[in-house]
Amino acid sequence: MNVSDKTMPRVLRVVGALGVVLAAAACGDKGSAQNDAPAKPAASSSAPAPSKPAAQSTAAPADGPAIATLGAVSVPRSEIENLLRTLPAAQREQLKADRSELDRVIRARLAERALVAEANAQGWTEREEIRLAVQAAQEQVVMRAYLDSVSQPADDYPSEAELQAAYDQNKDRFTQPASYRVSQIYLAAPYGDADAVAAARKQAADLVKRANAPKADFAALAKEFSQDANSAARGGDNGFVPLPQLVPELRGVVQGLKKGQVSAPVQMPGGIHILKLVDVRDARTPPLVEVQVQLRNALRAQRQEQAARAYLEGLVNAGTVSIDGKAVNEAFEAVK
C-alpha cells in the first residue's frame, strides 16, 4: 500500500520550466510560449557558423530598462516582473535568496533572443514555410481572442438561483467518500522465497502481539520494524485514504477494523502487512458555500463553450456553403 508524499514541491521544480512562462509573460496574454532553452543546431559541414547577435535589440524600447543583455539583445525588466508576479510570495523570496535558477532562465531567454536575432539577420523570416507558420499562428491567436470576446457570459451569470439549482442537480459529484487513516508495518517476504515468508510470518505474529499490548506504541514499532521506508519514517502513517484507493486485498481488512484496532498479518505477493485503523472520516457532501467558486467557474466555462459553438455555427449557416468535390479529390491525388 504505497502512499506518495504530499510535501510542497521545491522552488527548483516550480521554476524548472520558467522559460515558457517568461516568453508568455513578456507579451501578457498575447505572447507566445517558447522553450526555456534553445535547440542546438544540427552538426553539418555546410551549416553557417553562429554569428554575433544582430545589431538591433529584440526588446522593444517600450519594455523599459533591460535586466540582462547579451551584445545587442536584452531581456527587459518588465518581463521578469511579470514572471515574478505569477509566483507565490514564498517562492519569490526563495528565488531572491538563491537566484541561481532564475539566472539560468534569464540566460536561456537571452540565448533565445540571440537565436531569433541571428535567424532574422539570415533572412529566415522570408522563408515560405516560416511565413505560413507565422500566419497560421497569428490567425489562431486572433480567432481565439475574438471568439472569447464574443462568447463571454454576462457578468451576473450564474445567478444565485442558477448556482443553487446546479448544486442540487450535481450534489453527488461533490460528495467526498469516506476515508480511512491507516498505519501499517510492512515486512518484505516475496511468495517465491519460502524462508523469507516463514521468518516474516513469525515476526509479524510477534509484532501483532506487541501492538495489541496495553499502552503499545504502534508508531514506534513501525519506525523500528517496517520495511516500507516512506511510511516507516512517519510511524507507519499513510494519512486519510478513500477505500477505492487501497489495494483490493486490503479494502475488506480495513473495513472490518474498528477505530484503534490492529489487524492480523495480511500476506500479499510482496510481503506481509499489519494494519491499524487510526481514524475514519465519514462520507460528506460539502455545502454550496464551500464549492460555489468552483461551481460558478464550471458553469461560466460551459456557457462560454456553448456560446462559442453557436457563434461559429451561425457564421457558417449565415451563407451558402459550397464544397468542390472535384477539388477535394485532386487534393488527395496531390499528396499521394
Automatic annotation (TrEMBL):
Record carries keyword Signal: yes
Start and end residues of each stretch annotated as Disordered: 30-63
Taxonomy, superkingdom: Bacteria
UniProt biased composition (Low complexity): 37-63
InterPro entries according to UniProt: PPIase_dom_sf, PPIase_PpiC, PrsA_foldase, Trigger_fact/SurA_dom_sf
Key word Ribonucleoprotein present: no
GO molecular function: peptidyl-prolyl cis-trans isomerase activity
Signal sequence region: 1-26
Keywords: Isomerase, Signal
Protein family (similarity comment): Belongs to the PpiC/parvulin rotamase family.
PANTHER family, per database record: PEPTIDYL-PROLYL CIS-TRANS ISOMERASE, PPIC-TYPE-RELATED (PTHR47245:SF3), PEPTIDYLPROLYL ISOMERASE (PTHR47245)
Protein name: Survival protein SurA (Peptidyl-prolyl cis-trans isomerase SurA)
